[in-house]
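Whiteboard transcription, Tuesday session. T.W. wrote the structure tokens on the left side:
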């Protein structure tokens, strides 16, 4: 910390005053001692073992002290002055810190308390910087959440408005009898029906997403075989995979992998991952699911070949309403919530889900605690 000129003068003045006070104390003690010696000569002579104290005290003045005694008294005075100035310096440090804190409190959160501080004050300054940093992080997180809410409203509005516009348009044509035949009217009704199903899928996914995002959601834990569960999920997708010229294979280190979890929600996780692999694994032919045990955790990898994702897409995959395709068309029948829901369910089970690209494969790794019964 750099002292101002005024503070330096105050310290110098205080040093002089302190030295004067110490000298007066020395003088007072010396005079009291001389009075005591001259007044009680007999008593002092009986207990004094260092020469003729009466002659020494009577003939010696304060400034005539021996060099050794003078050096001793000077050291004591120096220590007292240093201690006094050190305390005053600490007060100036606190004054500077308080002034800087008031500046930070005005909204200058990037500002840091200037100067080098040691001891307890240094620890206090470091704690203040940590507190300010955590406050900035909390504010950034709050700003990010607010922005995310705005994006959520925008995306929901877009995804609902598009099919809703089509529904109103086709039903309006029927309402106004603007169709040439009953066949054309049925076509309009069918199109409106498909668009309504898209809206329902979006609303259902949105409801499930908001539900699983709540950390207080109770989980219905049961004991089950993960290998058998994955085989059942794969069977559900066999027909769709055949239509798209893909095959689904499951490999496991053991025939059975017993664990505890909410099976209904876990099924949704792998349902979403397989659905994602079938929709976006363009020009691919294989979907591989591998299961292995890592200590007390179960690792499940779902990977597909075909078109891989960019690094930017990998970083945003688990964001709600994100789609790897730049347009927000409904051609892939996706709401953009599937992976976000999968991530939330895995996190509810104290697990972790990540995505990566390796050797032409897009790989989703799911890590779940086994919690065996």
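and on the right, the sequence the group agreed on:
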């Amino acid at each position: 910390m750099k002292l101002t000129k005024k503070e330096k003068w105050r310290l110098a003045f205080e040093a002089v005053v302190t030295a004067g006070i110490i000298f007066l104390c020395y003088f007072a003690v010396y005079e009291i001692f001389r009075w005591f010696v001259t007044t009680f000569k007999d008593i002092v002579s009986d207990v004094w073992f260092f020469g003729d104290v009466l002659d020494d005290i009577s003939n010696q003045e304060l400034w005539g002290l021996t060099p050794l005694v003078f050096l001793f008294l000077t050291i004591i005075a120096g220590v007292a002055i240093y201690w006094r100035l050190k305390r005053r310096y600490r007060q100036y440090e606190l004054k500077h810190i308080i002034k800087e804190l008031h500046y930070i409190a005005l909204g200058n959160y990037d500002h840091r308390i200037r100067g080098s501080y040691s001891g307890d004050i240094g620890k206090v300054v470091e704690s203040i910087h940590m507190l300010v940093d955590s406050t900035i992080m909390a504010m950034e997180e709050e700003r990010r959440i607010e922005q995310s809410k705005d994006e959520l409203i925008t995306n929901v509005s877009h995804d609902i408005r598009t099919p809703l516009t089509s529904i109103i348009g086709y039903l309006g044509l029927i309402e106004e009898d603007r169709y040439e035949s009953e066949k054309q009217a049925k076509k309009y009704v069918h199109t409106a029906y498909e668009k309504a199903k898209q809206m329902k899928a979006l609303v259902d996914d949105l409801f499930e997403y908001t539900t699983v995002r709540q950390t207080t959601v109770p989980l219905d834990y049961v004991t089950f075989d993960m290998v058998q569960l994955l085989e059942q999920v794969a069977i559900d997708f066999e027909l769709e995979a055949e239509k798209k010229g893909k095959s689904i294979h499951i490999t496991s280190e053991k025939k059975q992998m017993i664990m505890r979890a909410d099976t209904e929600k876990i099924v949704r996780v792998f349902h979403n991952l397989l659905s994602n692999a079938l929709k976006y694994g363009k020009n691919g032919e294989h979907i591989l699911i591998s299961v292995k045990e890592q200590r007390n955790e179960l690792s499940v990898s779902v990977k597909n070949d075909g078109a891989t994702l960019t690094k930017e897409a990998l970083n945003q995959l688990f964001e709600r309403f994100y789609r790897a395709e730049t347009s927000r068309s409904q051609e892939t029948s996706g709401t953009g919530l599937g992976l976000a829901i999968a991530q939330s369910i895995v996190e509810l089970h104290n697990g972790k889900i990540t995505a990566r690209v390796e050797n032409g494969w897009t790989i989703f790794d799911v890590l779940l605690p086994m919690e065996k019964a």
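Someone added at the bottom: Residues 1 and 96 are 8 Å apart (CA to CA).
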